[in-house]
Design goal:
heterodimer, A: alpha/beta, 19 helices, B: 318 residues, MetI-like fold, 15 helices
Chain lengths: 447, 318
C-alpha cells in the first residue's frame, strides 16, 4: 500500500518555481501572441478607488503567485489597491450567494462557470471590456461565449478567465498489450477495450461516486456521447429520452469492467488508483500527469501515459465541457470602473500570458490569440488541453444556463442516475424517470 | 425623681423616588433579570429555528427570495423516493447504531467500574474516539473503507491471504450503509460508556453488599440493582444519543456524501444537499423540519418510556 498523490498535491510539488521546467516553457520565450490595435473602452477610475475580490484557491502555487504579482502591478500603475482573497472551491458558491443577496462584500468575484447567470440581476454589464479584449485577442472561444454572455443575447455578464478539462489519460503500453493504440471513438470499441483491460488485470476506472468534477464529467460525457442531454435549446427537461436510456444501458454493460468501488469514488480516487498502477484508463485534468511526472518514483508512469479527448461516441465532436473561471462585478461596488479596468488589465497579454504559462496547462485560455502561448508548445502531452474552451458542450447542455443547471450538477443528479443503474439498484427507465422528476423540480421556475 | 420625656419630633418620611420604587417592584425585577436570557434565546435560538421553519414554507433558493408556498415542499417530499429512502435509512441508522452503542458502551462501563490496574489510563484511551474531531475520524474511516487502499483489505488479501480481492465497503448500498453504522458506533461508544460509568459510580455499594448477604447472584444483582438504578441515566443518555445519531451529518457527508446512488443519505445530509449544495433552501429546510416529528417521538419514547418510576422500582407497568 502506498499513499498516493492527490490531485491537489500534484502541481504544488514545487511547481511555483518549477513550472517552466515542467512544461518546457522558457520564461524568457518570445511571445508569439498577437494583439490587435483596438481602442480600449474609456473607464475613468473613480477617485480613491480600492477593490476587493474573491477567487477560487490556486491549484498550482504559481497561479496565485503570478495573479498576485499582476494585481500588485495594477496597483502600482493605477494607485488602486486590490485585495485578493483565495477561497476554497466548495465555498465560492456560498460566498457569492451571500455577497449577491446582502449587496455587500467583494467588488469582484471569480466564480465558476454558471455563477454570473445565477446572479445576473446583481451584476454590472461587462460588454465594453469583453468586446475590447475579444477584438484585441482574436475573439472569445465558444465556451467562453456560452458562460460569459447572458442567454440569447450579446450582453456580457461574466468575463471567463480560463477553463480546465478532464480528458482521458491512459497507459500506452497496457493498451498496446491488449491490441489498441488509443481509445476507440465508438461505444462498442470502448466497451471492448475496457473488457480486455479488465482481463489483463489493469482495468479502467471512472468515478461514479458523488464527485463534483470527475463524477459529473463522466456522467455528462456518457450522456452527450449518446446525443442525450439534460435540456433542449428551449430549456425543456429532456433527460428521460431514448438516448439517455441507451447511455444508461451502455454504462450498465461498461461498469462491470471497471475496477471495484468506482461508485464510492470521489475526486481524488482515480488519481490515486492510476498513480498506484491499479488502473490503466481514466479521465482527469492535467494535474495527474504532472504529479506523476514530477515525482521520480512515478515518472515512468507519466512517460507511459497519453492524453486523449473524450471519445465522440455518436456525437459529432468530443463532448467535453470545461470547468470555467468566470469573473463578475457586483452592482454594489462603489468603483465599477476600477473593477472593470482591473479585469481588463488582467486579461491583457502582459499579465495574462505569464499567468497562463504559470498554470502549466491547468487553465486553458478563453481568447483565441492565447493559443499561441508558450505553455502549449512545451510538453506535447499537455497540448491537448489547449482547446478546452473550444468546446460547444457545457453544464446544462443544450439549454439556457440557469441556477438549476448548476444545482443539478451540485446535487449529483446525473451521477446518481448512472450509479443506480450500474449497481443494479434501478432499471434504466426507472433511473431516468427519477432523474427527470428531480430535474423538473429544479427547473420549475427557470422557464 | 421624675423623668420627663420629650416627645421626639415626627420627621416627615421621604418617599423613595420612582426608580427605587420600580426596582422594589417584584414583577419588574423578575422581568429585568430574565430579559437578557430571553433576549439571547430569542436571537440565537428562536430566530434561527423560526427562520428555518418559515423557509420550509417558501420556495426560497440561494440567490433569490422566495414566496410563501404553503405545504408545497412537504407535498413534494411525500412523492420523492429519495426523501423516503433517507427517512428509512435515518431510522435504521439510528436504531442499529444506538443499540450497538448502548450494548457495547454499557458493557465497557461495567468493565471500567471494576478495580484493575491502569484503570485511569484505560478510561482515557476509551475517550479517544470522542475527543477526536468527527471529520478526522470520518477521514480515517474513509481510508479504512477505500476500495483500493483499505487497510482491512490489505491485511486480508496481501498479508493473511484469506481473500483474493479487496472488500468493496462503500460501492454498493447495504455494505455502505452498515459501514457507516459501524463508524457511528465506534464514534459514539465513549459518550455512552463514560456517561453510564458515571451513573454506575453513584450506586451505593451497600446495596450490593446487602444483596450479596441475601445470596443474590451476579445476574440478580445486575437485574434488580444495577439496571433499575441506571434507568434514569440510561434514559437521558439514550435520548441524547438518539438525537445525535438521527441528526448525524459529518460522518456520512465526509465518507459517502450520500452515495452510492442515494443509498446512504440521512435526512440531515439530504437537507444539506438540497438546501445548500443544490440551492433549494426552502426544500432543504422542509427536509430538516420533517425530522422534528421523528425526534420528538424518539425523545418522548426513550425519555418517558425508560424513565418510568414504577419500572425502575421493579413494579409492573400500568
Amino acid at each position: 500500500m502506498r499513499n498516493d498523490i492527490t490531485r491537489r498535491d500534484a502541481l504544488a510539488l514545487g511547481l511555483s518555481a518549477a513550472t517552466v521546467a515542467a512544461t518546457g516553457v522558457a520564461a524568457h520565450a518570445q511571445s508569439a501572441i498577437k494583439a490587435a490595435d483596438v481602442p480600449a473602452p474609456k473607464l475613468p477610475i473613480e477617485k480613491g478607488a480600492s477593490l476587493r475580490m474573491l477567487r477560487p484557491v490556486r491549484f498550482v502555487q504559481a497561479d496565485e503567485d503570478v495573479f498576485r504579482a499582476n494585481a500588485a502591478k495594477f496597483t502600482k500603475e493605477t494607485g488602486v489597491e486590490v485585495k485578493v482573497d483565495f477561497v476554497g472551491w466548495e465555498d465560492i458558491s456560498q460566498q457569492t450567494a451571500v455577497t449577491a443577496n446582502s449587496g455587500a462584500g467583494p467588488d469582484i468575484i471569480i466564480g465558476f462557470s454558471d455563477a454570473p447567470h445565477i446572479y445576473v440581476d446583481k451584476l454590472i454589464e461587462l460588454t465594453d471590456v469583453a468586446d475590447y479584449v475579444g477584438k484585441r485577442y482574436g475573439g472569445w472561444l465558444p465556451l467562453a461565449q456560452r458562460y460569459g454572455k447572458k442567454n440569447k443575447s450579446d450582453t456580457w455578464i461574466g468575463l471567463p478567465f480560463g477553463a480546465t478539462a478532464g480528458p482521458l489519460i491512459y497507459r500506452k503500453s497496457i493498451l498496446q498489450s491488449v491490441g489498441f493504440d488509443k481509445v476507440p471513438e465508438d461505444h462498442a470499441g470502448i466497451l471492448d477495450l475496457c473488457q480486455k483491460l479488465q482481463k489483463a488485470g489493469k482495468p479502467a476506472g471512472f468515478a461514479l461516486g458523488n464527485a463534483k468534477g470527475d463524477g459529473n464529467g463522466f456522467a455528462s460525457w456518457a450522456l452527450w456521447s449518446h446525443n442525450a442531454a439534460l435540456l433542449d435549446s428551449d430549456g425543456n427537461v429532456t433527460i428521460n429520452s431514448k438516448e439517455t436510456i441507451a447511455a444508461l444501458n451502455w454504462v450498465k454493460q461498461l461498469y462491470p469492467t471497471f475496477i471495484a468501488g468506482t461508485t464510492s469514488w470521489n475526486d481524488v480516487s482515480n488519481n490515486r488508483a492510476y498513480s498506484a498502477q491499479e488502473i490503466a484508463l481514466t479521465a482527469n485534468g492535467v494535474s495527474l500527469y504532472f504529479s506523476l511526472k514530477n515525482d521520480p518514483a512515478t515518472k515512468a508512469i507519466a512517460d507511459d501515459s497519453e492524453h486523449q479527448l473524450l471519445p465522440k461516441g455518436v456525437a459529432k465532436v468530443s463532448p467535453m465541457a470545461g470547468l470555467t473561471l468566470n469573473a463578475m462585478v457586483f452592482k454594489h461596488s462603489q468603483y465599477p470602473n476600477a473593477a472593470k479596468a482591473f479585469l481588463q488589465y488582467m486579461l491583457e497579454k502582459d499579465q495574462y500570458e505569464p499567468w497562463l504559462n504559470a498554470n502549466s496547462g491547468y487553465w486553458a485560455q478563453p481568447l483565441a490569440a492565447y493559443a499561441e502561448a508558450a505553455v502549449w508548445k512545451g510538453d506535447p502531452k499537455v497540448a491537448i488541453f489547449k482547446d478546452t474552451m473550444n468546446s460547444t458542450y457545457y453544464d446544462g447542455y443544450a439549454g439556457p444556463i440557469s441556477t438549476a443547471t448548476g444545482a443539478v450538477s451540485a446535487d449529483y443528479v446525473l451521477i446518481q442516475m448512472f450509479a443506480s443503474v450500474a449497481t443494479g439498484a434501478a432499471t434504466p427507465e426507472a433511473a431516468a424517470a427519477e432523474a427527470e422528476q428531480r430535474c423538473k423540480r429544479y427547473f420549475r421556475r427557470q422557464r | 425623681m421624675s423623668v420627663t420625656t420629650l416627645s421626639s419630633p415626627v420627621l416627615p418620611q421621604r418617599q423613595p423616588n420612582w426608580l427605587v420604587r420600580l426596582f422594589d417592584y417584584k414583577p419588574f425585577l423578575i422581568a429585568m433579570c430574565l430579559a437578557p436570557a430571553i433576549g439571547l434565546l430569542a436571537v440565537f435560538l428562536t430566530y434561527p429555528l423560526g427562520l428555518g421553519i418559515w423557509l420550509a414554507f417558501t420556495d426560497t433558493t440561494i440567490g433569490q427570495k422566495g414566496i410563501f408556498v404553503g405545504l408545497d415542499n412537504f407535498q413534494y417530499l411525500l412523492s420523492d423516493p429519495l426523501w423516503w429512502g433517507a427517512v428509512s435509512y435515518s431510522v435504521i441508522y439510528t436504531g442499529i447504531a444506538t443499540f450497538g452503542k448502548f450494548a457495547l458502551g454499557f458493557w465497557l462501563a461495567l468493565l471500567l467500574n471494576n478495580h484493575f490496574p491502569f484503570k485511569s489510563l484505560l478510561r482515557a484511551i476509551i475517550l479517544l474516539p470522542w475527543i477526536v474531531p468527527t471529520v478526522l475520524s470520518a477521514l480515517a474511516f474513509w481510508w479504512i473503507y477505500d476500495p483500493q487502499f483499505s487497510i482491512i483489505s490489505y491485511l486480508l488479501v496481501d498479508v493473511l491471504h484469506w481473500k483474493s480481492s479487496n472488500i468493496d465497503f462503500l460501492g454498493s448500498p447495504w455494505p455502505a450503509r452498515f459501514s457507516l453504522i459501524a463508524a457511528n458506533i465506534w464514534r459514539g461508544i465513549p459518550f455512552v460508556a463514560i456517561s453510564l460509568l458515571a451513573g454506575l459510580q453513584t450506586i451505593s455499594p451497600s446495596l450490593y453488599e446487602a444483596a450479596m448477604l441475601d445470596g443474590a447472584s451476579s445476574w440478580q444483582r445486575f437485574r434488580y440493582i444495577t439496571f433499575p438504578m441506571m434507568m434514569p441515566i440510561l434514559a437521558i443518555v439514550m435520548t441524547f444519543s438518539i438525537i445525535f445519531t438521527f441528526t448525524d451529518f459529518q460522518l456520512v457527508y465526509a465518507i459517502t456524501r450520500g452515495g452510492p446512488g442515494n443509498s446512504t443519505h440521512l435526512l440531515a445530509t439530504l437537507a444539506f444537499q438540497r438546501g445548500i449544495a443544490g440551492g433549494e433552501l426552502g426544500e432543504g429546510a422542509a427536509i430538516a423540519v420533517s425530522m422534528i416529528p421523528f425526534l420528538v417521538f424518539a425523545t418522548l419514547f426513550s425519555y418517558f418510556g425508560l424513565a418510568r418510576r414504577k419500572w425502575q422500582q421493579g413494579e409492573a407497568n400500568d
